[in-house]
């Protein structure tokens, strides 16, 4: 498979008879492309470097989306295509070799170099997969060169991570041993927490993909049970299945309920007894319940509207509806993978509108009409909606923050309560100022 | 004796100098040894004034003490009058002068100068700078209004107000009065006299003609405003227009005193103010609940607490003042926030209180900037005493509409920005983008190590718990440590484990 | 292919967005894939705008490429018109759009919309953001002025001018135009139209009615101003009023174009400006000869060099720009300072140049803030691209009288203050008040280690000389090291001793 | 002697037949008091602490004169006298003991504690010398307690350092050895340079007072030859003479000429041969000559006016006149010690007006009438004079900066050229702006 293959665009729905109706929309999308995943991937994999082959727009996207806030020299760069590169593709390959040589000479510490395809490189059909093979031959054993596409004509936002991880799967060593593999980038702290929990259940050798060092890949084989920590990893899951692994179906580890179900799915697949699991998760589960109680007071009964962004929308909506008591008005997702979302969709309350794809203007019309208490949306929409009087939660934060597992269930809830708290605080104060003057001066 | 490392207030005669230096046509003869002349540089250097303060010092020496220091005073006062020809003079001893008991007031009177000579009684061993300023301003107002009587204002005239309080070396006095004048303009109120700032004794004599007084800095103007109120039935405003809510209150209060409709002015605030949008815009969400410690003069501390909690969504975790004269007001403000006010002029006590509160932001004076730096905390300055850098060239009021804009920028600037906080949270072990990095928009700097002492010696952290604590980003780590230790103490635990850490987190919330 | 870590300029269609987002009544239909919609957040987050940019993206996908992307464009453009009902539209492909060669201009024409539709040709693989802004503004001005002809102005009317250039996401455009409007007011000149800032297509059509144009940002307005000059005989100003000398020049230039007397306005500058006194006051003496490196867009880099050398007494030790369109002007400015200009958009080249120059202050863009931080150098921002923190709530112009005040505060702030430098010099080994301490008015921070590499590998420092070098305060140590090594190289020395260090000091002076 | 004794107020002029006329003035002084010396003394002596017994004014002076710029906790504090302290002196002593106990408990690292008298403590006659003896008995061997007066009724500015060092002299161990003792606080870097130069002449054991550690005092005795690095140390010199030392007469080490004469005086007194001295100082002397040449171009022919400040005025005026070619209009000094200034006064050009003491208003009248090219004055006067169009050099910088010796001769000159350079730069630029507009926009 080339790195530009993506998951089957419409796999048959499985195991979920009463799925809610889905509004499929076509129109302007307002979602990041897959390149954006590099913002966290280049920080997570400390020996990796990401070279986007694209336009000035790609470079500008990368620094505008988050880059200007990161002061260290990032472990990503863009090989910007110029007029002459568009003419002859053979030359473009020479140019690419030259750029990669210069880059690796400057950064000899890079052990995995990802060539990342973009819209322009896809449209003019530069074959980065072949280029990666050629360059790998040249730079191994020091540096492995891989390729994937983060182009916005093929991937949305988090699908970039999927394509990246999928490109790693063929490189993973084979194993026959039975063990658990958690896939999806997690904050280091969260990864440690899960590792501790699984270890408490006797699963000491639980592996994570991506690892903090991309070069040290975990092994995979028929004994591997894959637990998805993020919902957007269809291509990676499929690639692991191609290597013989079994992908487990479970809700995602958001909120106490999701975390418990997710941990159980992983542990049970490796033969841990339910009682053992119950004992291991008891303290964390109790803490989560306690910590979530006050958030629930602030959120219960409030309505929420999700614009499509990261594919985390459905699991998060499930958490907000079931554990926080919120009313779901519309849950937009850029892309709905029914199989990997089956366990989540089964938990959604009746009557929720799911939407897939986007016509941003019409969706804005719906949001304005519904006037939800909270709107979860991207950074391009958040301030305009705030200015219209709607409280918003910027969705990209949900990808960056530690929100998985028991210990962060309340942090996750807090991301949704905070905008409401803030609005209440500021509005209250302004009302208050109709009081008489403060007794500031006296003696 | 009181052991003092840094002082917040200078001696009372420095307060007197702040008043006369702001004015025109007044001269101050100070019976003082030569060392006291240092005070000139406060004005010429810290405030970059282009004139010497209108002060003549007798600069007596040890050898004069045996001889006639009273004669020295008279000679100095006469020469000062001849040279500067002021409209009025004030005279007083400095602290050393008080000890030699020469009675400058009586001596000056004996000179029979052709202008009012007002003696000050400043009690240098009891009183301090702000009190000295208030007393001096009061004495000057009384002295210059001598013989004036209450006259009812003619009906139908345009309302007028005086602006009272702006003095030399104040915190943003130069610009606050410009902004307040603009606010009064929005209400259609004319400013009769601003004092002491650039007012002459003749201007002070015109004070009773206005409809009411606007007290910008009670520390300086409260005593005089009360005397004017008693003597000439002039009401005065009590709201300090720092922050937009207080600005709205101020407009309503002034409108009521002037008998005008505040609505157009209030509408102008909504139209012009940028701070509400900056505070409501989503990048500011992360400001919510940040714990701030506030210390300063009473006026600025009380105002800062209101702005912090009502307009920026911070949580005030400590408030205090060095201004004992207004302790009651600060205590009341603290009570509204369910806090106990810290009333002290001992900087070491303030340091202890800040260290114990572990705030995420300190709002204070130049002294709290010292403290915050030592503790590795972000800090913004909200009150005198301040540094030369806090007398900027640019227009930088604290009051009114633009003042609120300035406050937003100034208080938010020392903090790590929202998205940056999250990147740090996610990848704090990254060797290049790590936890010890300073906020990216600040200078070539790494934060000083935050003081991370365990408060309670009876508690021990297990090694893995200490390790886990270090995974929490530094800007909230202090709070996490404090909460965990409090939780352990409350539950009688002697060792803190990872479980304790997370139990405490669940207990206290984020 | 060009290897790029950070970019100074975005792609040209972002320049187009900066123009239409600043305007009212214009809509932009961009033939682009979904990823390009990121550009919205530049405006809503970095500039905190409360409205989405007036841009509709076709967001074509891979699957559309086989189908009919032209039909998608037409459908999108028609829907955008119906929804937003603009007075005028512009259309163009983004970089990916250019590759699929759909001709948005032709397609839009075929829609036969009832408003002008202006196609842009932005050459995404050759051109960049500022060029795109200038081209877009020019195209809009031409499009909206179609059919207008030159009409002589009636004699005796009050002079009028347009202000051209302020756009969205510019560096302080919001506030500069307010200050420039005030300057024109001092001259008695009315502002007819400001564009693109909050101008509608109808406003653009009124541009030819003014007596002359004020070009604030040549990067945006130069092309349009020249076209207006050719077409309607409208002269335009060439002085950018950043700094007081340039402000004076600007007033004279505008006065001449308007046929008025500049004297009253010039007198107002002298009366109101605080920067000259702040710069002349003795605490600023230590600024003299500080070596500054300047990089930014051409307009701000050239202006900064003039302010730095003429008004703050700095020594400019490097100047450059990423704006190749105005390279000639920057080269000329560099030549007047006996320097060679650095013309590049490769941030790594800029970093090398700064490291080699070892300046004491960097004035640059957000990118130079990255660089300065890494090199441990103080830095102030003078040009786009900038951070969210450089779109402040408060009034913060760079131009005119208040702009000069702002510049003084902003550029001096990152530096150690005068007296502090001397205390450090005297007692730099003191364990409490040491060399690695940050300037006392800056945050809880210690400066990052200044890069202290020896430039020339053939040179060795004797241990005691290295020791002696360390006694020099860090803020001038870089220069001392550079001078000593240059001296050693010039004199063919391979080892640097204490004597070499002092010989070099005597040779180069302080 | 008590720490409050000061040098003979009017010692007979010695060895200087043709001294210039001296204008003695009486009137308002605008000079710091002796407390101010603590600003550098507490930094120079790292194991010392200074406790001022005084008023709020004293505390305010200390932080205003330089304190607010020093961020670390300073090694000085004030015991502020309050109303009740004025009543009973016995109580005041108890209070002082209490304050010192508290202070030393907090700062156990303090090895020398100076009790510093102030105007109020002198006027109410608190006997700090006796208090110091009492407290020393209590706190030795950890902490030695000494006392001196920095009061403004007895000392001006730099006389505070004199009183402080004089209080150390009785504590110095006795010696019979012959060696050189340099007195006066110097920046560490300058001290090192002088030590290196004397070592090059064979005087390896040259000692400095104060040392960086106040507790480690140098020895003194009949073999000691005292070289004054600062002119204001009359009481210290006398105290050393009382211990048998011989105080050398020399110009002070400012400028190449002064430095050479000063080094020669010290070395010759210890028997170093003139040739040896010449050889040792040759490189530094040559460097100073070279470095001073360009400063001379800027200063020669310009006039200078000194307001009284630090007693450095006469040596600095000598340097400016003889090496820089400046015209001296008036050289004010707060106090003229003719014996210690004899070698300097002999070098002054004819016709210079010296003034001692001050009537600041009349002196300002003279300065305004003379309109000197450069006025050297304190921080209270500098900006007002600048506003009147006079270029000024703030004098306190001359006390803080490394200006002694060959290597800093040009730095000293530069302190005087810089204000002139700056004025020229800024004025020139403003003239320039009458040029036509800059060609900022084109192409």
From TrEMBL, chains A, D:
Note accompanying the cofactor annotation: Binds 1 [4Fe-4S] cluster per heterodimer. The cluster is bound at the heterodimer interface by residues from both subunits.
Reported cofactor(s): [4Fe-4S] cluster
Membrane-traversing stretches: none
4Fe-4S keyword on record: yes
Coiled coil: none
Family matches, as Pfam families: Oxidored_nitro
Residues reported in the UniProt entry to bind [4Fe-4S] cluster: 33, 58, 119
InterPro entries per UniProt: LIPOR_BchN/ChlN (IPR050293), Nase/OxRdtase_comp1 (IPR000510), Protochl_reductN (IPR005970)
The keyword Calcium appears for this protein: no
Domain Nitrogenase/oxidoreductase component: 33-417
E.C. designation(s): 1.3.7.7
Catalytic activity line of the entry: chlorophyllide a + oxidized 2[4Fe-4S]-[ferredoxin] + 2 ADP + 2 phosphate = protochlorophyllide a + reduced 2[4Fe-4S]-[ferredoxin] + 2 ATP + 2 H2O
Pathway(s) annotated for this protein in UniProt: Porphyrin-containing compound metabolism; bacteriochlorophyll biosynthesis (light-independent)
Single GO MF annotation: 4 iron, 4 sulfur cluster binding
Subunit structure: Protochlorophyllide reductase is composed of three subunits; BchL, BchN and BchB. Forms a heterotetramer of two BchB and two BchN subunits.
Stated family: Belongs to the BchN/ChlN family.
Functional summary from the UniProt entry: Component of the dark-operative protochlorophyllide reductase (DPOR) that uses Mg-ATP and reduced ferredoxin to reduce ring D of protochlorophyllide (Pchlide) to form chlorophyllide a (Chlide). This reaction is light-independent. The NB-protein (BchN-BchB) is the catalytic component of the complex.
Listed name of the protein: Light-independent protochlorophyllide reductase subunit N
TrEMBL record, chains B, C:
The protein's name: Light-independent protochlorophyllide reductase subunit B
GO biological-process terms attached to the record: light-independent bacteriochlorophyll biosynthetic process; photosynthesis, dark reaction
Keyword Heme appears in the UniProt entry: no
Superkingdom: Bacteria
EC number: 1.3.7.7
Protein purpose: Component of the dark-operative protochlorophyllide reductase (DPOR) that uses Mg-ATP and reduced ferredoxin to reduce ring D of protochlorophyllide (Pchlide) to form chlorophyllide a (Chlide). This reaction is light-independent. The NB-protein (BchN-BchB) is the catalytic component of the complex.
Enzyme class: oxidoreductase
Residue ranges of every copy of the Light-independent protochlorophyllide reductase subunit B-like C-terminal domain listed in the record: 461-505
Residues spanning the membrane: none
Pathway membership, UniProt: Porphyrin-containing compound metabolism; bacteriochlorophyll biosynthesis (light-independent)
Cofactor: [4Fe-4S] cluster
Similarity remark: Belongs to the ChlB/BchB/BchZ family.
Reactions it catalyzes: chlorophyllide a + oxidized 2[4Fe-4S]-[ferredoxin] + 2 ADP + 2 phosphate = protochlorophyllide a + reduced 2[4Fe-4S]-[ferredoxin] + 2 ATP + 2 H2O
Keywords from the named record: 4Fe-4S, ATP-binding, Bacteriochlorophyll biosynthesis, Chlorophyll biosynthesis, Iron, Iron-sulfur, Metal-binding, Nucleotide-binding, Oxidoreductase, Photosynthesis
Organism: Caenispirillum salinarum AK4
ATP-binding recorded as keyword: yes
PANTHER family linked: LIGHT-INDEPENDENT PROTOCHLOROPHYLLIDE REDUCTASE SUBUNIT B
């Amino acid at each position: 498979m080339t790195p530009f293959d993506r998951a089957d665009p419409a796999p048959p729905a499985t195991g979920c008879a009463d799925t809610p109706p889905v509004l499929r929309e076509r129109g302007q999308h307002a979602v990041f492309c897959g390149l954006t995943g590099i913002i966290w991937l280049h920080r997570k994999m400390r020996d990796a470097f990401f070279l986007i082959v694209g336009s000035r727009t790609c470079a500008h996207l990368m620094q505008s989306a988050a880059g200007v806030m990161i002061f260290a020299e990032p472990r990503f760069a863009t090989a910007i295509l110029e007029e002459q590169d568009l003419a002859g593709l053979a030359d473009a390959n020479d140019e690419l070799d030259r750029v990669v040589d210069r880059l690796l000479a400057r950064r000899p510490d890079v052990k995995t170099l990802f060539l990342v395809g973009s819209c322009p490189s896809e449209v003019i059909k530069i074959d980065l997969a072949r280029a990666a093979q050629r360059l790998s031959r040249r730079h191994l054993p020091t540096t492995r060169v891989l390729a994937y596409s983060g182009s916005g004509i093929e991937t949305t936002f988090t699908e970039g991570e999927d394509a990246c991880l999928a490109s790693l799967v063929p490189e993973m060593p084979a194993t026959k041993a039975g063990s658990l593999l958690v896939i999806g980038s997690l904050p280091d702290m969260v990864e440690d927490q899960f590792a501790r929990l699984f270890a408490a259940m006797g699963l000491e050798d639980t592996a994570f993909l991506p690892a903090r060092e991309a070069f040290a890949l975990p092994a995979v084989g028929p004994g591997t049970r894959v637990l998805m920590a993020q919902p957007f990893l269809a291509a990676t899951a499929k690639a692991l299945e191609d290597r013989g692994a079994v992908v487990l179906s479970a809700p995602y580890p958001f909120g106490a309920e999701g975390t418990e179900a997710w941990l159980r799915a992983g542990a049970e697949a490796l033969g841990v007894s339910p009682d053992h699991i119950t004992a291991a998760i008891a303290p964390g589960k109790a803490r989560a319940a306690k910590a979530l109680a006050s958030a629930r007071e602030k959120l219960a009964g409030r309505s929420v509207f999700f614009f499509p962004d990261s594919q985390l929308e459905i699991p998060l909506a499930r958490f907000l509806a079931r554990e926080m008591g919120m009313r779901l008005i519309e849950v937009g997702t850029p892309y709905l993978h029914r199989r990997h979302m089956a366990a989540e969709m089964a938990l959604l309350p009746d009557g929720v509108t799911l939407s897939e794809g986007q016509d941003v203007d019409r969706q804005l019309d719906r949001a304005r009409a519904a006037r939800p208490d909270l709107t979860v949306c991207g950074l391009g929409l958040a301030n305009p909606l705030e200015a219209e009087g709607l409280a918003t939660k910027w969705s990209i934060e949900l990808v960056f923050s530690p929100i998985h597992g028991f210990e962060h269930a309340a942090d996750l809830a807090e991301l949704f309560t905070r905008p409401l708290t803030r609005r209440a605080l500021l509005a209250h104060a302004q009302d208050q100022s109709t009081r008489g003057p403060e007794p500031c001066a006296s003696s | 004796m009181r052991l003092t490392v840094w002082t917040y207030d200078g001696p009372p005669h420095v307060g007197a100098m702040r008043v006369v230096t702001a004015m025109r046509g007044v001269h101050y003869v100070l019976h003082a040894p030569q060392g006291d002349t240092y005070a000139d540089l406060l004005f010429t250097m810290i405030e970059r004034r282009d004139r010497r303060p209108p002060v003549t010092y007798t600069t007596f020496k040890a050898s004069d003490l045996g001889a006639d220091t009273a004669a020295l005073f008279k000679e100095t006062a006469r020469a000062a009058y001849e040279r500067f020809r002021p409209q009025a003079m004030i005279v007083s001893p400095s602290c050393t002068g008080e000890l030699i008991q020469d009675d400058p007031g009586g001596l000056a009177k004996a000179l029979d100068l052709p202008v009012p000579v007002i003696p000050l009684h400043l009690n240098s061993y009891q009183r301090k700078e702000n009190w000295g300023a208030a007393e001096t301003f009061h004495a000057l107002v009384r002295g210059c209004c001598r013989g004036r009587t209450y006259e009812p204002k003619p009906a139908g005239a345009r309302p007028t107000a005086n602006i009272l309080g702006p003095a030399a070396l104040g915190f943003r006095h130069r610009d606050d009065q410009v902004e307040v004048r603009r606010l009064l303009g929005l209400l259609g109120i004319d400013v009769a006299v601003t004092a002491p700032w650039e007012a002459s004794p003749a201007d002070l004599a015109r004070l009773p003609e206005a409809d009411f007084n606007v007290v910008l800095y009670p520390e300086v103007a409260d005593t005089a405003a009360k005397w004017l109120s008693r003597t000439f039935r002039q009401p005065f405003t009590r709201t300090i227009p720092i922050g937009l809510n207080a600005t709205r209150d101020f407009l309503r209060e002034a409108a009521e005193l002037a008998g005008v409709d505040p609505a157009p002015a209030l509408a102008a605030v909504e139209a012009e103010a940028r701070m509400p949008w900056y505070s409501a815009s989503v990048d500011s969400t992360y400001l919510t609940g940040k714990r701030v410690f506030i210390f300063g003069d009473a006026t600025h501390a009380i105002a800062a607490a209101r702005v912090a909690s009502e307009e920026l969504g911070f949580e005030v975790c400590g408030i205090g003042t060095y201004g004992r004269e207004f302790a009651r007001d600060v205590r009341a403000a603290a009570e509204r926030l369910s806090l106990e006010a810290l009333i002290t002029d001992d900087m070491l006590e303030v340091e202890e209180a800040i260290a114990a509160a572990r705030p995420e932001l300190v709002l204070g004076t130049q002294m709290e900037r010292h403290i915050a730096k030592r503790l590795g905390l972000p800090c913004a300055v909200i009150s005198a005493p301040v540094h030369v850098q806090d007398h900027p060239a640019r227009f930088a009021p604290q009051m009114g509409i633009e003042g609120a804009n300035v406050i937003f920028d100034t208080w938010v600037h020392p903090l790590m920005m929202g998205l940056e906080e999250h990147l740090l949270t996610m990848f704090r072990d990254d060797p290049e983008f790590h936890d010890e990095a300073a906020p990216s928009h600040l200078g070539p700097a790494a934060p000083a190590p935050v003081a991370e002492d365990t408060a309670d010696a009876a508690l021990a952290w297990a090694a893995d718990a200490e390790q886990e604590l270090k995974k929490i980003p530094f800007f909230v780590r202090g709070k996490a440590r404090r909460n965990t230790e409090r939780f352990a103490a409350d539950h009688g635990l002697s060792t803190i484990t990872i479980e304790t850490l997370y139990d405490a987190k669940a207990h206290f919330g984020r």
